[in-house]
TrEMBL record:
Its EC number is 2.3.1.266. PROSITE patterns: GNAT. This is Ribosomal protein S18-alanine N-acetyltransferase. Residues 8-156 form the N-acetyltransferase domain. It comes from Pseudonocardia benzenivorans.
Amino acid sequence: MTAAEERVVVGPLLRADAPRCAELEELLFPGDDPWSAQAFRDEIGAGHVYVGVRSGDRLVGYAGLAFTAGPPQPEAEVHTIGVDPAHQGRGLGRVLLHQLLAPADEVGATVFLEVRTDNAPAIGLYESEGFEIVGVRKRYYRPSGADAYTMRRDARA
């Protein structure tokens, strides 16, 4: 079943979603210091772009982006994207990524992100959306010590 076939709703991530986001973080990133509910509340409260995807009443994915530099050369950074393992492979990660890229594109921002070097599905998604690997951060993820690629997508009008 794809995102188009699964009845999902995409909208702003709410502070009330923070406990569910933390629960998903534990499932998705158990060895890499998953974000707490408070971390999500802080990021949402800071006014960054955070979106969620729901299947029925259940939050099944989340994503966040922050603008790190303003004009004349705006930049943004993808903070996180996570999809419930039971809903992966249906295009929800792409839906969430598009929700993050739209406001970045509105202001012509270059977008950066980090991704585990061993996360082939995510790397493939990012490359298909115009990101390219521009560097490696050794032992970026803690406590696992996994390496990360830094990826960049040039500004789009």
